[in-house]
Amino acid sequence: MTFDPHRFCIAPMMDWTDRHCRAFHRTLTARARLYTEMVTAAAVLHGDRERLLGFEARERPLALQLGGCDPSQLASAARVGEDFGYDEVNLNVGCPSDRVQTGRFGACLMREPALVAECVGAMIGAVRIPVTVKCRLGVDDQDPEESLFALVDSCVAAGVTTFVVHARKAWLQGLSPKDNREIPPLDWSLVARLKRERPSLTVVINGGVTSLDSAESLLDGVDGVMIGRAAYHDPSILGAVDARLFGDPDVVAPEDAVERYKPYVARALARGVRLPAMARHMLGLFQGRPGARAWRRILTVDSHSPGAGLEVIDRALTAVGSSGQPRLAA
Q1: Is the separation of the CB atoms in 283 and 300 below 8 Å?
Q2: pTM of the prediction?
């Protein structure tokens, strides 16, 4: 059985999908395609590359998401990403934050399809790994049926074949980034239409996907689904991804994910990383289960103690285990 490598993706999320988060998510699913937080091309070229781009090989398949609007800078940053070992470089044409707009990138580039095409063309010319685009349906008063297809067709002409589409418009004035994830109406049908009318493309749908049930239903019309905050706040749903969407035999229980994560935590602690930076990504793991509150409290409070280490995770896990909830089968 073969599947598109983008069949299930975990969204790039600023301040959330750092290397510790990705290492944790990988304990739950071996198949999902993971994405970094958005990193600007300028930061890649002039910042601390190991801090910004470093990852463990076990995180792969892994895509680097870049932000920017300068073709030359983006090409150089993409080359750096390829040298680091990333499997894909993704251009952000969807983030609506004020900071991104000030830098003339993100969702505001929906208004400049020719510039986006120039950017991705330069990136494609610089690397051998795939260059992909994550976009919105449009911005502000744009007609989504026009703006989405105009952007996609321009990028296709430059060589892009994979698009992740957040199935909402973005309002660049008047809505916060949080509101832009929730208030503009979803139009999954337009994304499915893009796939029908451009069947040679790989089309991944993002936005409003809150469960594996909805992911499975959407896969009838597109090549892949991307889920973000729902999986972050309740990461236990990721434990069934490989079984339900890829036909693998096993479901990963939350307790097993914790045990798989502990060696990574130990290595990071040895490098001087503090426990809260890693523990915060596990807070929602036992969502809805007896003992979940104790799990969150111990990780949140005790991880800040001086010298806190794996014993805090073990103590939190014991609190869940003592709740009387039977262990899930792996």
Answers
A1: yes
A2: 0.93
Claim to verify: residue 32 and residue 107 sit in the same structural domain: yes
State the catalytic residues: 95
Residue that is last in its domain, among 229, 246, 263: 246
pLDDT by 10-residue block (mean), the chain, 330 residues: 87 96 98 97 97 96 97 98 98 85 84 97 98 96 96 98 96 78 88 98 97 96 97 97 95 97 97 97 95 96 95 96 48
Spatial neighbors of 271 by CB under 8 A, at least 6 apart, are none
Number of domains observed in the structure of the chain: 2
Domain of 292 in residue numbering reads as 254-321
In a domain, residue 327? The reply is no
- CATH number of the domain to which 28 belongs: 3.20.20.70
